[in-house]
Design a protein that fits this description.
The structure holds two protein chains of two kinds. Chain A contains 19 helices and 15 strands. By secondary structure, chain A is α/β, with parallel strands linked by helices. Chain A folds into three domains: about 50-190, Nitrogenase molybdenum iron protein domain (Rossmann fold, 3-Layer(aba) Sandwich); about 200-320, 3-Layer(aba) Sandwich (Rossmann fold), CATH 3.40.50.1980; about 325-480, Rossmann fold (3-Layer(aba) Sandwich), CATH 3.40.50.1980. By secondary structure, chain B is of the alpha/beta class. Classes of the chains: A alpha/beta, B alpha/beta. The interface between A and B is large, with 98 and 111 residues.
Chain lengths: ~500, ~475
């Protein structure tokens, strides 16, 4: 017998039922909550993933682009399957399968062999390289490795190969998105700036947004304005491609020439200040025209701000169709606000999503009671607090920075709410708390077609509102006494 | 093993070899040379592998493989329900593998079972200064917050091994201090060539830290067995365990689906190990055979034909009491299974299926398809070894294509040529083939259905296969304009 821990050999003892009952009650208490919030090292059910996942999302947003993971192959399989499950779409990406010897010799050989094979087999127009842990820990020099690859003729010299360092032990998926995106733009726009040229277009970056409906919604709004545009990192066709009997490995994405010419744009809007700071800063210094960084246009006010900014940048009137659309959205809101007014919510997610959820809820007269951010800065906290301070419905609401979904569970059990907004991972806590979970975030693994329904713009506000109000009405119908069960609600 | 060699019309050794050559023609020379031995035409008469396996993945080809950590966390450790499993390192690995394998578990979440994501969420400073101290604190916190957890596993992610942390000594010290088993598992993703080494490392860890540290409270009986390599995907163990109990056995522990640490630790006291997934747990069966003299038998719980054969093989190792019970069970279920076959076979007869999965499924499920009248025209594994391919050869028809760790390109090319009516593979492949209009079932996760094991499972399996192949939705794929 080994027993390397040197523990005493014991008979199996079943935990007594009363002890189970005690702990079951205990984990719902204030005392447990305090213990839970005192955690220093252990993270339980975090909301955030790691950088390379976001990098892969950004890479998929460009025409003919093969995402390439420099690192262990298991990483690539994890990012791919996560995207597969959320979108229910293919997510082709390769890895250079670094193994133990890579730790000794570095990853150049794997990278070169991988590039040669990927180029021959999958014929990409662009290869977007990003890293997982291993090369980051051993300190691989991607700049040199890729330069050598081109010098050796492993891939054609003219092939764009943007690359990003995306260590998983720093930041979250939104930072990987930012790093990959800025690298793609830097690579594609190199020497493309032409003095005096203006494409007349708006460049739009949607931020680290996993909802294909949102991308289509931005485009529809711009088309209503009659404004020509280039959506940069456009995943709408990549992750919402037709089923017509044929498979196309590169199903969508921003045309590389449009991305290259985007540097001569009339204006650029980067949505999501927390998901695109690097990209936006670089654009500000290098792109022609005007540059604006804006929050996700969730809810009416934030959509108004977006619409007005677009109108201002292009010197256009807001078209009648959008004015009517706004009116219809407000009509939907005034018709149904009674089902959401005063309801208490807990919300969690990436900073840009949180700003949107909170703003939307406050304008509906709902209360974002617990606001939980898995990874975020003081700046995020301040901006959220400012939103709360601007509304009477924000009174008493609390922000929890750098907390996880096990913290959220304690909050839901000790200080209950009516509903939660987040992603599929919240389903365990909301089941225990017996409240509905609205899956507006990422990932959604357990409901279908959610990514096709926008949550931005006026239409997004209607979509969120409809889902929330009807769920509350469903709950009433399912739980009310017979004598209170009635036709109208 | 099937009795006679089956042939598929239109498939010959020459046609399969031509298909392989044609597929590899786009590869650069070096990659072609590396990949060629991993693709072959099946030779059932030889009963031996026709491909090489368990080699490094060729970089850049788009493999479906995972890593050692995935094999350790996802397969072996994750399903043990009453332990806290810590993904030690950056946040991603644990996050991606959180709840995505469908190893169902009983108990009360956060009280007696822990299907959650526990991580040390490494930051830059942990990489620079090491994570051992953090790990020690984390273990105390876990024990404090989850007092009924029977133990804690510490599963290393890549950086932990690269920066030279010593999780083993932290685990040893903390186990003493907290008086619970804390199992360090050095399963960094860069080790080995696939998930497979993660299984092996985890088996070794069970050998070194767990087995023999507990004893069953009840007295032993001659019918005490353990069910090994059953992960309770979609509730599989809740079909197989009752079936074995119906046959008269005491199933003392399940490794590791819906598993309990202490029952696993006492498994050295059983009379026989029944193994389902050979690939991931043969190591511990061999250890228990050598160390404790416990024999083991490899069975197949997919489809009535294989189940019947398996139960009879099992009964051969026991007395008349068990033999009679097993015959009773077979007699009870045979008509029920025949009714299932009568319902679905007319719609599935002659349909072709291609498989690419892991573990045991690329061979073990073939019989279940055959029970429904279907033929397997291609099969392969993500992370198998030669002994798996040896076992696969007799199950597949003559000259059908066998692929080891195929790239997405190879798999797509083979499907394009063979035009299967169904593909059974994973989530990364599913939507590729569905876009092509080919019906698909995820055969890792049972596509959110299940169980597929045991008699109960076959009913679900047959329904799902029929639903996939004969869904009217496929007729909508081609537009009339």
């Amino acid at each position: 017998m080994s027993n390397l821990l040197g523990l005493e050999v014991k008979k199996i003892v079943e935990t007594p039922p009363e002890e189970i009952e005690r702990v079951k009650e205990w984990i719902n208490t204030e005392e447990y909550k305090e213990k839970n919030f005192a955690r220093q090292a252990l993270v339980i059910n975090p909301v955030h993933a790691c950088q390379p996942l976001g990098a892969q999302l950004a890479a998929h947003g460009f025409e003919g682009t093969l995402p390439f993971v420099h690192g262990s192959q298991g990483c690539a399989s994890y990012y791919r399957s996560t995207l597969n499950r959320h979108f229910r779409e293919p997510a082709p990406a390769v890895s250079d399968s670094m193994t133990e010897d890579g730790a000794v010799f570095g990853g150049q050989n794997n990278l070169h062999e991988g590039l040669e094979n990927a180029y021959a087999i999958y014929k990409p127009k662009m290869i977007a390289v990003f890293t997982s842990c291993m090369p980051e820990v051993i300190g691989d020099d991607l700049t040199a490795f890729l330069k050598n690859a081109k010098q050796k003729g492993i891939v054609p010299k003219e092939m764009p190969i943007p690359y990003a360092n995306t260590p998983s032990f720093n930041g979250t998926h939104i930072h990987g998105y930012d790093s990959m995106l800025v690298s793609v733009l830097q690579t594609l726009t190199e020497e493309k700036k032409i003095e005096g040229r203006c494409t007349g277009k708006l460049n739009l970056i949607a931020g680290c947004d996993f909802n294909t409906g949102d991308y289509r919604e931005y485009k529809r709004i711009l088309e209503a304005f009659g404004i020509p545009y280039t959506v940069l990192a456009d995943i709408s066709d990549t992750f919402d491609s037709p089923c017509d009997g044929s498979y196309h490995i590169y199903a969508g994405g921003t045309k590389l020439e449009d991305a290259a010419d985007s540097i001569n744009g009339k204006a650029t809007i980067a949505i999501g200040p927390y998901a695109t700071p690097k990209t936006f800063n670089w654009i500000k210094d290098n792109y022609s025209g005007k540059h604006v960084s804006m929050p996700m246009p969730m809810g009416i006010e934030k959509t108004d701000a977006f619409i007005m900014k677009v109108a201002e940048l292009f010197g256009k009137e807001v078209p009648a169709s959008l004015k009517n659309e706004r009116g219809r959205a407000v009509d939907a809101i005034t018709d149904s606000h009674q089902y959401i007014h005063g309801k208490k919510f807990a919300v969690y997610g990436d900073p840009d999503y949180l700003m949107g959820y909170v703003s939307f809820l406050l304008e509906m007269g709902a209360v974002p009671h617990h606001i939980l951010c898995s990874r975020g800065s003081k700046k995020v906290e301040k901006e959220l607090q400012a939103l709360l301070d601007g509304s009477m419905y924000g009174k008493g609401c609390k922000i929890y920075m750098n907390k996880d979904l096990w913290h959220l569970r304690s909050l839901l059990m000790t200080d209950p709410v009516d509903a939660v907004i987040g992603d599929s991972h919240g389903k365990f806590a909301t089941r225990d708390a017996k409240v509905p979970l609205f899956r507006f975030g990422f990932p959604v693994f357990d409901r279908v077609n959610k990514h096709r329904y926008p949550i931005i713009g006026y239409q997004g506000a209607v979509n969120m509102l409809t889902e929330i109000c009807n769920k509350f009405i469903d709950i009433k119908d399912e739980t009310c006494e017979d004598r209170q069960f009635e036709l109208m609600r | 093993m099937s009795d006679k060699i089956r042939k598929i019309e239109g498939i010959t050794k020459e046609s399969t070899e031509a298909l392989i050559a044609e597929t590899l023609s786009v590869y650069p020379e070096k990659a072609k040379k590396k990949r060629a031995p991993h693709l072959g035409a099946n030779d059932p008469a030889s009963g031996a592998a026709c491909v090489k396996s368990n080699k490094k993945t060729v970089p850049g080809v788009m493999s479906a493989r995972g890593c050692a950590y995935a094999g350790a966390k996802g397969v072996v450790w994750g399903p043990i329900r009453d332990m806290v499993h810590v993904s030690h390192g950056p946040v991603g690995c644990g996050w991606y593998s959180w709840g995505t394998r469908r190893n169902m578990m009983s108990g009360i979440t956060g009280v007696t079972s822990f299907p959650m994501q526990f991580t040390s969420d490494f930051q830059e400073k942990d990489i620079v200064y090491g994570g051992d101290k953090k790990l020690k604190t984390l273990l105390e916190e876990a024990h404090d917050l989850f007092p009924l957890a029977k133990g804690i596993s510490v599963l290393s992610e890549c950086p932990v091994g690269l920066i030279g942390d010593d999780i083993n000594s932290v685990a040893r010290a903390s186990a003493k201090e907290l008086d619970i088993p804390i199992i360090p598992c050095n399963c960094e993703g860069f080790r080995g060539v696939s998930q497979s080494l993660g299984h092996h490392i985890s088996n070794d860890t069970i050998r070194d830290y767990i087995i023999g540290t507990r004893e069953y409270a009840e007295p032993a009986s001659p019918y005490d067995i353990a069910l090994i390599g059953e992960y309770n995907i979609g509730g599989d163990a809740w079909s197989t365990k009752p079936l074995l109990e119906e046959c008269g056995f005491n199933v003392k522990s399940v490794w590791t689906g819906d598993g309990e640490l202490e029952k696993i630790a006492a498994t050295h006291q059983v009379k026989l190990n029944v193994i389902h997934c050979y690939r991931s747990m043969n190591y511990m069966c061999k250890v228990m055979e050598e160390k404790y003299g416990i024999p083991w038998i490899e069975l197949n719980f997919f489809g009535p034909t294989k189940i019947r054969n398996s139960l009879r093989q099992l009964a051969q190792l026991f007395d008349d009491h068990i033999k009679a019970k097993v015959e009773e069970v077979i007699a009870k279920y045979d008509p029920i299974m025949q009714a299932v076959i009568d319902e679905y076979k007319p719609r599935l007869d002659g349909k072709k299926v291609m498989l690419l999965v892991g573990g045991l499924r690329p061979r073990h499920t073939i019989g279940a398809y055959e029970d429904l009248g279907m033929d397997c025209v291609g099969s392969g594994y993500e992370f198998a070894h030669t002994d798996d391919y040896d076992r696969t050869a007799p199950e597949m028809p003559d000259a059908t294509v066998v692929y080891d760790d195929p790239s997405e390109y190879e798999f797509e090319k083979f499907a394009d040529a063979l035009k299967p009516d169904l593909i059974g593979s994973g989530i990364k492949e599913k939507y590729v083939f569905q876009k092509m209009g080919i019906p698909f079932r995820q055969m890792h996760s049972w596509d959110y259905s299940g169980p597929y094991h045991g008699y109960k499972g076959f009913e679900v399996f047959a329904r799902d296969v029929d639903m996939a192949i004969n869904s009217p939705t496929w007729k909508l794929v081609k537009a009339p304009f």
